[in-house]
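Protocol step 4 of 6: structure prediction from sequence.
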Amino acid sequence: MAVPVIAAAIAGSGLAITVIVLLVRGGFLLGRLVKQVDTQDAKIEVLDAKIDALTAAVQQTNAILVGLANHTHDADGHTVFTIPTADRR
């Protein structure tokens, strides 16, 4: 009777060790995943800043194009461009 009990104890401890190893491995993998997410978040922030800069440049270009399209001529025949400012849009 003692042999089956010992065998069951060994099998149970082996299972416990396996579970502990898997939990530790899972913890390390979760840590790597969190680091990768943080890296991607930083890259997204850089892209957002670049998109904001590009949007500002496009808006400025559009304002200049509106000014070119809405040109007039003064009494001397000179072309006068009216480029809208932020408060005149």
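Step 5 (inspection) to follow. The CA atoms of residues 41 and 66 lie 37 Å apart.
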